[in-house]
Design a protein that fits this description.
single chain; 70 residues; mainly beta; five-stranded antiparallel beta sheet; globular
Length: 70
């Protein structure tokens, strides 16, 4: 089923493709992970800590889906 987030807050997320801290990320619903790939994925927010730890590592991401320039 996955998890429900209503916007805002910092979450521990699985970083699909090694996004660096500060990178804009998108939610990949097929893999239930954040990614830097925008195609067919919804804006999630930014990596705010522990980015760049390798593919499929855990990072902290600010959930900000309603900011058009997220």
């Amino acid at each position: 089923l996955g998890a429900l987030a209503v916007g805002g807050g910092v979450y521990d997320v699985v970083n699909l493709n090694n996004a660096a801290t500060g990178a804009k990320v998108y939610w990949d619903d097929s893999n239930n992970k954040v990614t830097t790939v925008s195609t067919n994925n919804a804006v999630f927010g930014w990596i705010v800590a522990s980015g760049g730890g390798g593919a499929n590592s855990t990072a902290k991401a600010m959930h900000a889906p309603y900011h058009g320039n997220a």
